Input
Amino acid sequence: MNGWLLAATILLGTGLTAALWAVATGPLPRRVLAQNLTTSVACPALLLLAQGYGRPSYTDVALLLALLGPVGTLVFARLLADELHGPASPRTATSLTWTAVGIGVSVAAAVSAATGPGRAMAKVLVVTALLIAGNLVASRALAAGYRAVGETRDGGAGEPR
Output
């Protein structure tokens, strides 16, 4: 077992354990955040596994997950907008987002340094940029982003009666 595989194992073990705990014991806002956490953990872990096993195809899987993971979180945020109003959402989403950003950036820096300049490094940087942007957008939607949409649709200040 090399260092890349050890780092991926630690990242998957701690991240997925935390996500499983949040899904099993938490209220709805925490469960949706845990769904977003699984994407934030799986993408960097796939990048580490790609480097550890020498399989660039894992980077393609990470790219697909970085595209579709935040979209799934946004779908949940939109469909469950009324139920996601809670005191834990804004603070938890912010701290979790910046933790995921830090993990993603550190993994991308290490993997990019190991791969060297070229197409593989560009893929790693694209995956990281998509993951960070997706986490920021999904976290904003979970915290308060769709509250205003629901209020104006239901006859709030944005729509005349």
